[in-house]
C-alpha cells in the first residue's frame, strides 16, 4: 500500500499548496519576519541576542514543531467533520496510511521551514552544529509531540474546539519545557508534569546535540515511549467520524 | 480459457445483463443478514433484522430518518460491528474479511465530503490507484457527465456533480455490490432523475445495488424490492407493487357529471363507498379491476362525464399506513 501512501501524500502536498495562506503562512511568512528582524538588528544587538539565556534556534524549532502539531490536529478534525476520513476509510487504504500521510506532509513542511530559516540565517553567522543529527533530534521530538496531538485529535469533540484547545494545551508546554529556564526552578509537582511532556525531552535532546554531547539515551527513550503510549491511545480512541 | 476446455460460456455483464439477472436472481443471495442487532448506549438502532438481497437487484431500505437504515448499511459494509447476528456479503464476513470485501464493494457514504481543493481528476486518479482492476476512467467521467469538470476543484462542484463524482468513486473498481446511502437527498428534481438513471445503469450491468432512501418516490421508481424499517425493525419486505397491493388495495375513481347519478353507479356492487360533492362523485373499491368495472358501468349508464381521474395508492400511502406517521425529514 506504499503506492497509496505516496499518492495520498503528494495529493495532500498539492492541496496544501492551494490553501490560501498554506505555503505563505507556513514557509514564506516566518522567513520574511525572520529576515526583517535579522536586518533590523545592529551587530552589537545581534551579539546580545546570541548571549540570550536561551538557545534561539531551539526555541524557534520548538515553536515550529508545536504550531505544526496544532495545525495537524485542526486538519484531522476538519477532515473528520467533513466525512473525508470516513470516505478514505471506505477504500482499501489502511488507517495507518491515511493518518501517516498527513503526518508525513506536515513534517515535510515543518522541516522545510526550519531549513529555510537556517539558510536565511547564514548571513549572520553559521550554525555550528551537526545538522543531520539536529534534524533527526528535531524530527523525533516533533513526532512525539504529534503523537500527543493525535490523542487530542481523538478526544476533541468538534473541529471548532480543536484549534483553541490544542493551542491552550501545547503552547504552555513550551514554557515548561526547560528551553527558557531549567526545570529545576519549577516546583516539585510541576517538575513531574514537565518530565511527562514530550516537549521537555525534545528540548533536552536538541540541547544535547547542540552542545555536542550527543543523543544520550533518556530523552530518545522518553520520546519513543511517548510515541508508543500515545499511539496505543490513538488506536483505541480515534474516531473516524 | 484454453486450460479450462469444458467451462460453460461466461455471461457477458455488459450485453447480457437482463438474461443474467433473470437466471441468477432467484437463487443467489449476495447479501444475507440474519438477526442483526446494534445498540448505541440505551438506543436500539437495529433490532433483529433479517433479509436477503439477490444478485442484480436494486434493494432499497426505506424508512424515516433515524430508523436504522444507515446503521444497517454500515454493518453490511463492515464499518460497524454488530452486537449480534450474522452477515454475509459476497460470502464474506464484513468484520473478519474487511480488507477483502472492500476490494469487491463500492460505497457512497451519506454526507461524506472530499478535500475542498482536490480536483476531480486527482480524486479519480487516487481512487484508481488503490484497486488492482479499474474501469476506463475517461469513459466513466463521460458517462457521468463530468468530463468537462476534470480540472474543477471539489468545492466548485454543484450538489448533483458532487454526487455523480461520489458514484464514480464508488464504481471505479467495477464492484459487485454498490452501497448508496441517501444518494439524492438535497438534490433538485433534474439532478435526482439523472442520478436514478445512473443507478439503473449500474443495475443493468449485472451489479447489485443496496441503497437507503427516505424518499418514497425514489424507492418506487428505482428499487426492485424494498424493505421498510422503523425504529430499527424491518416491518415489511417486497416489491413496491406487492407492498401497495397488500397494504393499500383501495382504488378511487373520481368523476364529474352534471345531473343525477344513476342507481347502477351509486350502488355498484364492487364499490365500498360512493360520495357525492356537487357534480363530483367519488367511488371507492378494491383490486385492479375495480377501475375497469367503474368505466363499464359509466359507459352502460349513458351519462355524460366531463372529468375523470383515478387515485391509486403509492408506496408513500403504505408507509403512512404501516408506520402511522408522516415522513420525518
Describe the structure.
The complex is a heterodimer of chains A (241) and B (329). Chain A has helices at residues 2-18, 22-40, 43-50, 56-81, 84-89, 95-121, 131-155, 159-176, 188-196, 198-211, 218-237. With 241 residues, chain A is mostly helical. In chain A, helix 4 (56-81) runs antiparallel to helix 8 (159-176) and helix 10 runs antiparallel to helix 11 (218-237). Chain A is globular and about 60 Å long. Chain A starts with a helix and ends with a helix. The mean pLDDT of chain A is 89. With 329 residues, chain B is an alpha/beta fold. Helices cover 33% and strands 27% of the residues of chain B. Chain B is built from twelve helices and 13 strands. Chain B has helices spanning 17-24, 69-77, 98-104, 120-129, 137-143, 159-171, 189-204, 216-222, 240-247, 263-266, 290-301, 315-323, and strands at 29-40, 43-54, 58-62, 84-89, 105-108, 177-181, 208-213, 225-230, 233-238, 250-256, 271-277, 280-286, 307-311. Chain B has a six-stranded mixed sheet with strand order 5-6-7-3-8-9, with helices on both faces. A four-stranded antiparallel sheet of chain B has the order 11-12-10-13, with helices on one face. A three-stranded antiparallel sheet of chain B has the order 2-1-4, with helices on one face. At the A-B interface, helix 1 and helix 5 of A face helix 3 and helix 4 of B.
Key features of this structure:
heterodimer; A: 241 residues; mainly alpha; 11 helices; 78% helix; globular; B: 329 residues; alpha/beta; 6-stranded mixed beta sheet; 4-stranded antiparallel beta sheet; 12 helices
Amino acid at each position: 500500500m506504499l503506492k497509496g501512501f505516496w499518492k495520498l501524500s503528494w495529493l495532500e502536498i498539492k492541496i496544501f499548496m492551494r490553501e490560501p495562506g498554506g505555503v505563505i503562512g507556513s514557509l514564506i511568512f516566518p522567513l520574511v519576519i525572520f529576515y526583517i528582524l535579522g536586518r533590523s538588528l545592529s551587530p552589537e544587538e545581534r551579539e546580545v541576542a546570541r548571549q540570550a539565556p536561551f538557545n534561539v534556534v531551539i526555541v524557534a524549532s520548538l515553536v515550529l514543531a508545536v504550531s505544526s502539531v496544532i495545525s495537524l490536529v485542526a486538519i484531522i478534525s476538519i477532515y473528520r467533520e467533513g466525512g473525508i476520513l470516513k470516505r478514505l476509510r471506505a477504500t482499501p487504504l489502511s488507517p495507518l496510511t491515511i493518518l501517516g500521510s498527513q503526518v508525513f506532509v506536515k513534517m515535510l513542511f515543518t522541516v522545510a521551514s526550519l531549513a529555510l530559516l537556517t539558510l536565511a540565517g547564514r548571513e549572520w553567522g553559521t550554525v555550528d552544529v551537526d545538522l543531520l543529527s539536529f534534524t533527526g533530534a528535531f524530527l523525533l521530538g516533533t513526532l512525539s509531540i504529534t503523537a500527543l496531538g493525535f490523542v487530542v485529535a481523538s478526544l476533541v469533540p468538534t473541529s471548532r474546539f480543536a484549534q483553541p484547545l490544542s493551542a491552550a494545551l501545547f503552547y504552555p508546554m513550551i514554557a515548561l519545557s526547560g528551553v527558557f529556564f531549567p526545570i529545576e526552578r519549577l516546583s516539585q509537582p510541576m517538575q513531574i508534569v514537565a518530565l511527562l511532556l514530550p516537549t521537555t525531552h525534545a528540548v533536552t535532546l536538541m540541547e544535547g546535540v547542540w552542545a555536542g554531547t550527543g543523543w544520550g539515551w533518556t530523552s530518545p527513550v522518553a520520546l519513543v515511549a511517548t510515541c508508543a503510549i500515545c499511539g496505543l491511545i490513538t488506536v483505541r480512541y480515534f474516531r473516524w467520524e | 480459457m484454453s486450460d479450462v476446455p469444458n467451462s460453460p460460456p461466461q455471461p457477458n455483464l455488459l450485453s447480457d445483463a437482463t438474461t443474467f439477472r433473470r437466471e441468477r436472481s432467484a437463487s443467489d443471495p449476495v447479501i444475507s443478514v440474519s438477526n442483526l442487532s446494534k445498540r448505541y448506549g440505551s438506543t436500539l438502532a437495529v433490532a433483529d433484522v433479517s433479509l436477503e438481497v439477490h444478485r442484480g437487484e436494486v434493494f432499497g431500505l426505506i424508512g424515516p430518518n433515524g430508523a436504522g437504515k444507515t446503521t444497517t448499511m454500515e454493518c453490511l459494509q463492515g464499518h460497524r460491528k454488530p452486537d449480534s447476528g450474522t452477515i454475509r456479503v459476497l460470502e464474506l464476513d464484513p468484520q473478519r474479511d474487511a480488507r477483502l470485501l472492500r476490494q469487491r464493494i463500492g460505497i457512497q457514504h451519506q454526507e461524506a465530503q472530499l478535500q475542498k481543493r482536490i480536483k476531480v481528476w486527482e480524486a479519480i486518479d487516487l481512487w484508481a490507484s488503490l484497486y488492482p482492476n479499474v474501469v476506463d476512467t475517461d469513459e466513466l467521467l463521460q458517462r457521468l457527465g463530468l468530463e468537462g469538470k476534470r480540472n474543477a476543484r471539489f468545492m466548485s462542484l454543484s450538489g448533483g456533480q458532487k454526487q455523480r463524482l461520489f458514484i464514480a468513486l464508488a464504481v471505479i473498481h467495477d464492484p459487485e455490490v454498490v452501497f448508496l446511502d441517501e444518494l439524492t437527498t438535497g438534490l433538485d428534481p433534474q439532478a435526482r432523475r439523472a442520478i436514478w438513471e445512473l443507478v439503473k445503469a449500474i443495475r443493468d450491468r449485472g451489479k447489485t445495488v443496496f441503497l437507503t432512501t427516505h424518499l418514497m418516490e425514489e424507492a418506487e421508481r428505482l428499487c426492485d424490492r424494498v424493505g421498510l424499517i422503523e425504529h430499527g425493525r424491518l416491518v415489511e419486505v417486497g416489491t413496491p407493487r406487492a407492498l401497495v397491493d397488500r397494504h393499500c388495495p383501495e382504488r378511487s375513481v373520481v368523476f364529474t357529471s352534471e345531473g343525477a347519478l344513476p342507481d347502477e353507479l351509486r350502488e355498484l356492487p364492487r364499490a365500498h363507498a360512493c360520495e357525492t360533492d356537487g357534480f363530483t362523485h367519488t367511488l371507492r373499491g378494491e383490486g385492479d379491476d375495480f377501475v375497469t368495472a367503474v368505466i363499464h358501468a359509466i359507459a352502460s349508464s349513458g351519462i355524460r362525464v366531463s372529468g375523470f381521474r383515478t387515485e391509486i395508492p403509492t408506496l408513500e400511502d403504505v408507509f403512512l399506513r404501516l408506520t402511522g406517521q408522516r415522513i420525518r425529514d
